């Protein structure tokens, strides 16, 4: 500071020194605050970049910030996600998969799960939550995201196993109940099989009569089913081992079939058009039960026929003088 050599100036020296001290304290405080901010930014940057969860900021539906883990989940770099709309990663058919979870009801932040597409065309299941924030002076959403594909696939397997087990129990109940109408029995069996498989559009049970297959139970459109059967029969592989088939029209509908075996002979086929090709082992087990049931029905009819003939012979003998 510049001080004039005068009595009045010397009298003002304490105030000058006080201002200098205050200014020095302010600069020290400012430097400490700046260091704290820089340290905090480094910590937060390290947390975001090394987090096991995908962290992002959405503004007007597009990514404004994405950490490396988010890029790993979607099979791309984090920079390639910037500016991309979030819903571009979800196909229209999968929007219905977005659902709110009731895992933590005490939390004010809802948790969602969804099925999303990766850059390589594969799908992953994610769990995410978002909170509103202000980013660069505008409203935005801060979110974190976890890859729950392994857990979700295990949940789906458990649900599928429970569903198949319940269907097999119902088929067993039908096997233990007497049936005089074979077509009604086959319709009930087909209903049980469909209940054990997810997303069945068309299905049917065919039995071989002579050199052709005859439809004995139907679910869905008969035109679609017959068109598929005619195409498969031309290749001659419908009565082969349980397998999946590609539709002739090239549609995404998946077809699966399993032979109905009775008395060690292939007597027909169980055919379904469904979304879950993974249910082929269940279809094979169900077709074996149907074959056993047909075998039991044939034996019951043979026994009843023999009893009826024996009764007729007994009545005839009673009338012989």
Keywords:
single chain, about 325 residues, alpha+beta, Beta-Lactamase, 2 domains, five-stranded antiparallel sheet, rod-shaped, disordered C terminus
What does this structure look like?
The protein folds into two domains: about 50-145, Beta-Lactamase (2-Layer Sandwich); about 165-315, Beta-Lactamase, CATH 3.30.450.40. About 45% of the residues lie in helices and about 25% in strands. The protein is built from eight helices and eleven strands. It has a six-stranded antiparallel beta sheet with strand order 2-1-6-5-4-3. A five-stranded antiparallel beta sheet has the order 8-7-11-10-9, with helices on both faces. Helix 5 (about 150-175) runs parallel beside helix 8 (about 280-320). The chain is rod-shaped. About 20% of the residues are buried. The model is unreliable at about 300-305 and about 315-320 (pLDDT under 50).
- CATH C-level class of the largest domain is Alpha Beta
Report the span from N to C terminus.
151 Å
Number of strands: 11
In what range is the share of β-strand residues? 25-35%
Largest sheet: 6 strands, antiparallel
Order of helices and strands: HHEEHHEEEEHHEEHEEEH
Percent helix, as a range, is 40-55%
Gross geometry: rod-shaped
């Amino acid at each position: 500071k510049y001080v004039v050599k005068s009595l009045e100036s010397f009298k003002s020296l304490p105030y000058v020194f006080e201002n200098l001290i205050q200014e020095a304290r302010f600069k020290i405080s400012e430097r400490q605050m700046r260091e704290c901010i820089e340290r905090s930014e480094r910590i937060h940057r390290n947390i975001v970049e090394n987090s096991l969860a995908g962290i992002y900021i959405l503004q007007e539906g597009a990514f404004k910030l994405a950490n490396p883990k988010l890029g790993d989940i979607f099979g791309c770099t984090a920079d390639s996600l910037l500016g991309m709309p979030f819903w571009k990663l979800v196909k229209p058919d999968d929007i219905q998969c977005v659902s709110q979870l009731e895992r933590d009801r005490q939390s004010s932040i809802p948790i969602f799960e969804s099925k999303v597409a990766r850059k390589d065309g594969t799908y992953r299941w994610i769990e995410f939550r978002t909170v509103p924030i202000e980013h660069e002076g505008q409203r935005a959403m801060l979110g974190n995201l976890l890859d729950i594909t392994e857990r979700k696939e295990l949940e789906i397997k458990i649900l599928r196993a429970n569903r198949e087990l319940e269907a097999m129990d119902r088929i067993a109940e039908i096997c233990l109940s007497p049936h005089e109408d074979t077509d009604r029995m086959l319709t009930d069996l087909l209903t049980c099989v469909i209940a054990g498989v997810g997303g069945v559009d068309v299905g049917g049970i065919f039995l071989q009569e002579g050199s052709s297959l005859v439809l004995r139970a139907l679910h869905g459109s008969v035109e679609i089913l017959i068109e598929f059967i005619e195409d498969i029969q031309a290749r001659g592989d419908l009565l082969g081992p349980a397998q999946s088939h590609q539709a002739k029209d090239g549609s995404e509908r998946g077809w699966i079939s399993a032979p109905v075996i009775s008395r060690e002979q292939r007597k027909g086929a169980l055919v379904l058009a469904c979304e879950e090709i993974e249910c082929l082992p269940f279809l094979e087990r169900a077709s074996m039960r149907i074959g056993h049931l047909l075998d039991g029905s044939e034996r019951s009819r043979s026994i009843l026929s023999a009893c009826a003939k024996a009764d007729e012979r007994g009545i005839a003998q009673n009338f012989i003088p």
